């Protein structure tokens, strides 16, 4: 690891100004960034920890019933504090990695990183969440821009993520047991005005919505609605854990499991 | 170098560290507390698990400066006041929960964190909680058994498989 300066501001404004420095980078829980630094894949001059900002912590229920999660809230906190207000999302957080990873890793770090096999991107896209930064609000549909890439500008901080709560939702994660990430994960959310299906772990372009499945489920919410639908394996991920065809098949299976869980 | 201060196993300690100094490195190299093992250094194996403000974390994946002001617990702080093994450590000995012992500090620290939040876990809950702790020797069975025993549950029916 190359050396760097370390700062730990206590307000978003101070963090934003610290991130204005040359080659400064935000540090969430460090569960992705520290391994990256160890591999010398990044060489920031300053790391600005977001872990000391009270405004970016915790889960609360807004007046409109949506669930707002501070950008620096750990997976463990979401798993326990959102269990009553948004159980499917709390369950997703409780399945990330292992307990020690969940005690450090944060929602903001996970969304900003946009790993193609990460869980939160599916939860946010599947819920139609709004990603709130220090400068603006970004709809999940506009946020994820492909592998490890998002709409965030340099130095922009995710301060809050706002989740509308569906009538029913389920995250089905087919575990890749060595990494503990999703080999394929499907987040399905059923709102009064329609169904959203978000898929992670499968595509070379990162998380995506399976719109054909959404249309079919909007007509008829049952597993059979997917009959005849399939995912084109062409731009699925292929690695030693699973071929393109295997992942494409898993997307249908995980979606069916999610439908079952929402019945 | 930046000065960092924290409480480790009840004692106030401080030292000069670089931005990149890991908590595992601070504990092992500055404080000579080498009970915290570093197995993988990539956040996979859990040999380095310590408690930070009561929560289990992988100390190879946390900066020492992030623990400034924190209350840190390591395996060296687990024994009873009189130096005898605590109930979890004793159960590991009684149930043969270790062979080479490399994973054991992390296993004991994870077990302690688990039993604090869930004093009587089921076997499935123990196995789930240990997902981030790898052991190359025991096959886990006796580790799980030791933790169940440490929680005061009868383990006579859990046969070695
Ligand atoms: C063993 C292991 C298993 C894991 N398993 C899973 C899994 O099953 N599913 C899963 O989804 N993830 C998994 N992860 C990843 C984990 O969830 C990370 O916590 C997460 O991807 C990154 O969050 P972080 O807070 O640790 O961010 P960091 O590692 O600190 O940062 C990641 C990136 O996000 C940026 N960043 C951090 N916070 C913010 C913010 N608030 N605003 C803007 N940018 C920010 C950083 O600058 C950096 O570029 C695993 C990690 C490990 C080590
Ligand atoms: S040494 Fe920290 S997890 Fe392996
Ligand atoms: S006892 Fe050897 S690694 Fe666990």
From TrEMBL, chain A:
Gene Ontology molecular function, alphabetical: FAD binding; oxidoreductase activity
Gene3D superfamilies registered for this protein in UniProt: 3.30.465.10, CO dehydrogenase flavoprotein, C-terminal domain, Uridine Diphospho-n-acetylenolpyruvylglucosamine Reductase, domain 2
Keywords: FAD, Flavoprotein, Oxidoreductase
EC number: 1.2.99.2
Pfam families referenced in this protein's UniProt entry, alphabetically: FAD_binding_5
EC top class, as a word: oxidoreductase
Domain FAD-binding PCMH-type: 1-168
Keyword Oxidoreductase: yes
Protein name according to UniProt: Carbon monoxide dehydrogenase medium chain
Organism in which the protein naturally occurs: Ruegeria atlantica
TrEMBL record, chain B:
Keywords tagged on the record: 2Fe-2S, Iron, Iron-sulfur, Metal-binding, Oxidoreductase
EC number: 1.2.99.2
InterPro entries the UniProt entry points to: 2Fe-2S-bd (IPR002888), 2Fe-2S-bd_dom_sf (IPR036884), 2Fe-2S_ferredoxin-like_sf (IPR036010), 2Fe-2S_ferredoxin-type (IPR001041), 2Fe2S_fd_BS (IPR006058), Beta-grasp_dom_sf (IPR012675), Diverse_Oxidoreductases (IPR051452)
GO MF assignments: 2 iron, 2 sulfur cluster binding; metal ion binding; oxidoreductase activity
The 2Fe-2S ferredoxin-type domain, residue ranges: 2-78
Domain of life: Bacteria
UniProt cross-references to SUPFAM superfamilies, sorted A to Z: 2Fe-2S ferredoxin-like, CO dehydrogenase ISP C-domain like
Family annotation (CDD domains): fer2 (cd00207)
Pfam families registered for this protein in UniProt: Fer2, Fer2_2
Record-given protein name: Carbon monoxide dehydrogenase small chain
UniProt lineage: Bacteria, Pseudomonadati, Pseudomonadota, Alphaproteobacteria, Rhodobacterales
């Amino acid at each position: 690891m190359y050396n760097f300066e370390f700062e730990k501001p206590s307000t978003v404004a101070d963090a934003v100004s610290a991130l204005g420095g040359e080659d400064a980078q935000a540090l969430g829980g460090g569960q992705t960034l520290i391994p990256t630094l160890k591999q010398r894949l990044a060489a920031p001059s300053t790391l600005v920890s977001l872990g000391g900002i009270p405004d970016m912590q915790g889960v609360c229920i807004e007046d409109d019933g949506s669930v707002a999660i501070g950008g620096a809230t750990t997976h463990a906190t979401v798993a326990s504090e959102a269990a009553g207000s948004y159980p499917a999302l709390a369950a997703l957080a409780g399945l990330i990695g292992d307990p020690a990873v969940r005690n450090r890793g944060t929602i903001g770090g996970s969304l900003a990183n946009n790993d193609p096999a990460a869980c939160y991107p599916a939860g946010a896209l599947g819920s139609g969440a709004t990603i709130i930064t220090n400068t603006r609000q970004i709809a999940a549909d506009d946020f994820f821009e492909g592998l490890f890439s998002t709409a965030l500008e340099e130095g922009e901080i995710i301060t809050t993520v706002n989740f509308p709560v569906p009538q029913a939702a389920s995250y089905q994660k087919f575990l890749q047991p060595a990494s503990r990430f999703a080999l394929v994960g499907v987040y399905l959310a059923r709102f009064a005005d329609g169904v959203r299906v978000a898929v992670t772990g499968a595509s070379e372009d990162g998380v995506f919505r399976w719109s054909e499945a959404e249309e079919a489920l909007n007509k008829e919410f049952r597993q059979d609605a997917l009959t005849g639908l399939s995912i084109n394996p062409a731009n699925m991920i292929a690695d030693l854990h699973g071929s393109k065809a295997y992942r494409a098949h898993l997307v249908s299976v995980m979606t069916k499991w999610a439908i079952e869980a929402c019945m | 170098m930046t000065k960092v201060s924290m409480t480790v196993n009840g004692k106030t300690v401080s030292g000069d560290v670089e931005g990149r100094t890991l908590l595992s490195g601070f504990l092992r190299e500055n404080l000579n507390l080498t009970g915290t093992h570093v197995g993988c250094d990539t956040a996979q194996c859990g040999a380095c698990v310590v408690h930070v403000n009561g929560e289990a974390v992988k100390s190879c994946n946390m900066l020492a400066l992030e623990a400034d002001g924190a209350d840190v617990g390591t395996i060296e702080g687990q024994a009873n006041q009189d130096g005898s093994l605590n109930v979890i450590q004793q159960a590991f000995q009684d149930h043969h929960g270790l062979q080479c012992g490399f994973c054991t500090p992390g296993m004991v620290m994870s077990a302690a964190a688990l039993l604090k939040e869930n004093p009587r876990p089921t076997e499935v809950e123990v196995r789930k909680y240990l997902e981030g702790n790898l052991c190359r020797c025991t096959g886990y069975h006796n580790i799980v058994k030791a933790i169940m025993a440490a929680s005061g549950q009868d383990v006579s029916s859990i046969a070695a498989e």
